Amino acid sequence: MLLPFVMTAAFILLSLPVTTVHSATVSSTPAQTFLGIGGSGAWWPHDLFNFPASVRQNLSSLLFSDSGLGISSYRYNLGGGGVGVSNPVRAPQTPYVSPGVYNFSADPQGTFFLQQASDFGVPGITMFLNTAPAPLTSNGDSCGGQFVSGSGTAYATYIVDVAEHWRDAGINISYISAMNEPDSTFGPVPCGQEGMLVEPSQRSEVVSSLWNELNSRGLSSAIGILADETSSTAVAPTEYSAWLPEVVDMVAHLVHHAYDFPSDANYLAYVNAAHAASNGKTTWMSEICCSLGTPAGTGRGYSQGFDPTINNALMFAGLVFQSFVVGGEAHYDFWTLVSNEIGCEPLTSSTCVTTANSNGWTDGMIYYDPDYTTNGNFELYLVKHFWTYKHFGNFVKPGTQRLPLTGSDANTHTLVVSNSTTFSVIAMNPNTTTSTLSLTFPQTVCGTTGFRTSASEDFATISPATGSGETWELPLSATSLSTYIFARKAC
Ligand SMILES: *[C@@H]1O[C@H](CO)[C@@H](O)[C@H](O)[C@H]1NC(C)=O
Ligand SMILES: *[C@@H]1O[C@H](CO)[C@@H](O)[C@H](O)[C@H]1NC(C)=O
Ligand SMILES: *[C@@H]1O[C@H](CO)[C@@H](O)[C@H](O)[C@H]1NC(C)=O
Ligand SMILES: *[C@@H]1O[C@H](CO)[C@@H](O)[C@H](O)[C@H]1NC(C)=O
Ligand SMILES: *[C@@H]1O[C@H](CO)[C@@H](O)[C@H](O)[C@H]1NC(C)=O
């Protein structure tokens, strides 16, 4: 009996594909405490407000509930009136009429989804502005001009009046960002979107005026100021010395975009520079979109091109890992969440929404037909990015903590999230071969379930990890993102 058994075993071993095993140890000492996962309500509310009520409701639950993304951060775009902006979708109305006079019925589209985020209990609501209302800017437009030095008090009064209005209506706006991408005018007029240049030397006026206004109304601890949302991690630290020292104590978190798609080393250099310039303020990544590239992260860079496939979705997941694991950051926001930049016609091609094309943009998790007004197509199309971002939205909740991995096989594509009852391990395999992650936990745990997104699966429920006590094996299938859940107790 022995010989045939050995031969069978040898045959099985030889015929199985080789699975690489990576081993690492989970630290018991938390790194950062997470603050949020989210994205922005620009500029899709303009269109989605016109969709049937049932589709709007579905969209809200796809974004704001755990049956969907379960985001914990929503960025409401307070419009500047869209004066000088040629694309009506990107020209949100403003409630500003004249100093102290408001029309809070303006921008029913943006305020509808702001209310939805609040109704669904999204805990972190930010109000962000691309520009001051047109009458307050240097050129009287909502783009192409610049912040007028000395107008800080008028600008801040407007912003805080609007924030107070919505808070009085029960919407807990807890952060304000008064200059989104202050490094560009987005001109010349006619522009493709709103924008207002705020020179580095002008930024302290914007922050201090806002803080003084919040403080005078007893709101400076209820509403945190986010600044300065510069578009590139390479540029932001070179400008901090021009504005940050004067107002560092008034800023809640230093927020930045990452449109330069930094390498891991450069990302870490940015975070270190931001900490050094601010006495260790938390940094946030608050806007990103629009890159092609591979799951492992090569070929990243701002560019046109719609790629709804798992390859690009993992490339974006890699950016989230970079912020959380390499940068040690506490919060991550994608850009528009919902987009019509699909680059093809879903009603005439059945493969349009699942196939890459060079006409569209990869700037959404959910897409809709740009021709909905003429063809009546109100379908919502979920791309792989929706399913990969759901892993983060569902498990990286505010108050959870990251437990670092140690060991020579620890890699930047694994994130261990802990709360008082559970460890959630979000792990990416960017390679086209399967592998196994072998983890040693700091305590006895019990693998309870798992979820996986791959070319063929959308957050599919999978078998729990196998093991016992402190040591567990987590299979990672090719080109996938998995989350394995562990109860912090014996099985
Ligand atoms: C307020 O804005 C709404 C929406 O644009 C508009 O219909 C209404 O006429 C405005 N009201 C005033 C008094 O301007
Ligand atoms: C509003 O948000 C702040 C900051 O996130 C939080 O401390 C506060 O508890 C929230 N209030 C309500 C009523 O949700
Ligand atoms: C919501 O939209 C998704 C994506 O289009 C679809 O699969 C789902 O059936 C919709 N749900 C409802 C209740 O309409
Ligand atoms: C801990 O995280 C798990 C997984 O996300 C969740 O189901 C559970 O409700 C969380 N527990 C607490 C106390 O927050
Ligand atoms: C993917 O391949 C790279 C390069 O060979 C390797 O360093 C990495 O550990 C692999 N990742 C996984 C999850 O197998």
TrEMBL record:
SUPFAM superfamilies this protein is in?
(Trans)glycosidases
Q: What would you give as a GO molecular function for this chain, any one?
A: hydrolase activity
Pfam families recorded = Glyco_hydr_30_2
UniProt entry keywords in alphabetical sequence: Hydrolase, Signal
Concerning InterPro entries, the annotation shows: 6GAL-like, 6GAL/EXGAL, GH, Glyco_hydro_b
Q: Note the Gene3D superfamilies from the entry.
A: Glycosidases, Golgi alpha-mannosidase II
- Signal peptide range equals 1-23
Tell me the ranges covered by the Endo-beta-1,6-galactanase-like domain, including all copies: 32-339
Name this protein carries in UniProt: Glycoside hydrolase family 5 protein
Q: What is the lineage of its organism?
A: Eukaryota, Fungi, Dikarya, Basidiomycota, Agaricomycotina
